[in-house]
Design a protein that fits this description.
single chain; 237 residues; mainly alpha; 10 helices
């Protein structure tokens, strides 16, 4: 059963168990058919890429509603239904589809807000992407005095104003952090899997990291990444 990032395995198992309990029975209600349907539902939740418990719960609601919508549509095409039962099946299918669509919009909004919060905590990554964090101030108008309004000092008539220092590189508002440091901080389970495999794991249950990021996890001299690598040395061995 696939894991959910940042969620303990016991809680992830309970989330998937709740999903299986919410599914309608298959048309051919046998143990084999139920197992296939549960595997289908679990894979559908995993492909929605939940990253925490809240997103996992919403993903389960989406997939369960989709399965009930399909079950209602299958009921609508069964022979022998009177017009009233046919209308009820179609109405139930439409209601479940609307709930699934609403859940998808909610999940996408939650994931976008989470990603925005993660990027705000790691401005150095945005800097490498082309953004610069610097203090912005309004330039003084040309010919304005260099002294403050309340100052008594005045420039002598023949004095030459001091040249401003050359501009330096933009100063980061927050501490810089590398991609590897960000990865081991936000996704310790994924980083541990990369270290255990000595590269890209053969079986992935998360989006594959870039080769440069994998190389940094395996060989970076960053104190944070090195400490994480040393703490997971028995696992990698």
């Amino acid at each position: 059963m696939p894991s959910i990032p940042n969620v303990p395995d016991t809680i992830a198992c309970e989330i998937y168990a709740e999903l299986c309990r919410s599914l309608p029975p298959p048309p051919d209600d046998t143990p084999e058919a139920r197992a296939i349907r549960e595997q289908h539902a679990v894979a559908a939740v995993a492909h929605l890429l939940p990253e925490n418990v809240a997103e996992g719960n919403v993903a389960v609601q989406i997939v369960a509603a989709q399965f009930h919508a399909r079950d209602a549509l299958q009921g609508a095409v069964r022979s022998g239904l009177d017009p009233e039962d046919l209308r009820r099946c179609r109405a139930w299918a439409a209601s479940m589809m609307r709930q699934a669509d609403s859940g998808i919009r909610t999940l996408l909004r939650m994931q976008a807000e989470r990603q925005k919060a993660e990027d705000a905590l790691r401005p150095a990554a945005m800097q490498r992407a082309g953004y610069w964090f610097r203090s912005v101030s309004e330039p003084e108008p040309a010919g304005s005095p260099t002294t403050s309004p309340g100052s008594t000092e005045r420039e002598s008539p023949g004095s030459t104003p001091e040249a401003p220092p050359p501009p330096g590189p933009p100063r980061l508002e927050y501490g810089a952090i590398t991609l590897g440091e960000r990865y081991v901080t936000l996704y310790p389970d994924r980083a541990a899997a990369v270290l255990a495999a000595g590269g890209l794991p053969a079986r992935l249950n998360f989006p594959p990291p870039d080769p440069a990021l994998i190389e940094e996890l395996l060989s970076s001299n960053s104190p944070l990444v090195r400490a994480f690598r040393e703490s997971h040395a028995p696992l990698a061995a």
